[in-house]
Amino acid sequence: MLGNLTRRGFLACGVAAAAIPKLKIAAVELWQLEGEREAAAGANRQHQVQPLHIYAESRPKEYVEPSSPPLAKSRITSIYLKLRTDLGVESTYGPVDSEAAIVIDRQLKSFLIGKDPLAGETLWDQMHRSNRHSRGGAYMMAISAADNAIWDLRGQYFKTPVYRLLGGPTKPAIEAYCSTLGHSVQLDAVRRKAAEFKQMGFRNQKWFLAYGPGDGLAGLQRNVDLVRELRETVGDDTDLMFDAFMGWNLDYAIAWSKRVEQYRPRWIEEAFHADKIDSFSQLRKSTSIPVASGEHFYGRWQTHDYLKAGAISVVQADPEWCGGVSELAKICNISSVYDAQVIPHGHSLHAALHVVASQSPMTCPLVEYLFGKMQSYYHFEKYQLEPVKGHIELPDRAGFGIEFDEAKILKRSQLT
């Protein structure tokens, strides 16, 4: 006997389960939502160093944070993916990148209709095999959006959050690090904002370096000054991370690292283009500062190449781009073998939060919270994911729990 269930009863349950009609995707829809919000005009426009900045004509002018920027209305547009099934179960996921939406509409939509959304491994594998360009770029971004929407559909079907489908929560709340993209790197502004973020309860802050090889030794010194100023402002009990967004070369990165090691950065992120795996490996060997990258990794294969080469110690795969929840979970498994941490890039938050919640804190200790972007990114959603004292409580709604605040939607149109 299995508990109080006899073998005959167990087999009867199996027959009953087999008789349940299979779920099928009946419609794949892309909806564009439009609205407005008030924002400080000209604020939070600090540039970060980028690969193109090696050309003088492409380097932006020095950014000066306005002292009292006026409020102005700004237009907000977001695209969401909706899946409908023949049994009436529906899912919603987004916002979806516009380039991914094109691929979904023109190539993945016809493929997904009629498929069983509960057959997750089969669907992902088939989507990945369905196009010669699926290994990266916009096609992998489209697979990511579809995969995330399918995970939400499963959550709606089983009436449980996605992190429970992934194995259940390993912690009741997820610690977030404050990502300061757009905030001024003028030292007086840095002091104010860094102290403010610490007061809000963030134990980890990431700042974006504005200068690269094209700015010469003066730019290098300013990148060093930023690190020193931040350490002096927040003290030793706050971790500091830095992002160079592929804008450096190896010599520059080593020079910066040697001058800032004394300030103990938690990591230097994406110093080079993702293709330059040897540069990452050499940088990691040359400094005690942990090396991070991965937002532009497409799938477990590229991640594994980096880990085998000893190129990084922090993997920042983005579930909106790397293949969705399904692929990020596999990347976590591979990374744990190498004792590397997976701290997903925070382009979005829903999928990353649920994957991190289901993983060991040794592998996934944090999520990224893009402080400026998240003030408007989920504008149309009723339930905002917001850190309190640096932590985001796990939602208990089914799937990813995305519901719209209808009062904020001024226009809704279906994209075809």
Describe the structure.
By secondary structure, the chain is of the alpha/beta class. The chain has two domains: about 25-160, 2-Layer Sandwich (Enolase-like, domain 1), CATH 3.30.390.10; about 165-410, Enolase-like C-terminal domain (TIM Barrel). Helix content is about 35%, strand content about 20%. The chain is built from twelve helices and 13 strands. Strands 4, 5, 6, 7, 8, 9, 10, 11 and 12 form a nine-stranded mixed sheet that branches. Strands 3-2-1-13 form a four-stranded antiparallel sheet. Helix 2 packs across helix 4, helix 7 packs parallel to helix 8 (about 250-260) and helix 10 runs parallel beside helix 11. The longest helix is centred in the middle third of the chain and has 22 residues, at about 135-160. The chain is globular. The protein starts with 6 loop residues before the first helix and ends with a strand. Residues about 1-5 have low confidence and may be disordered.
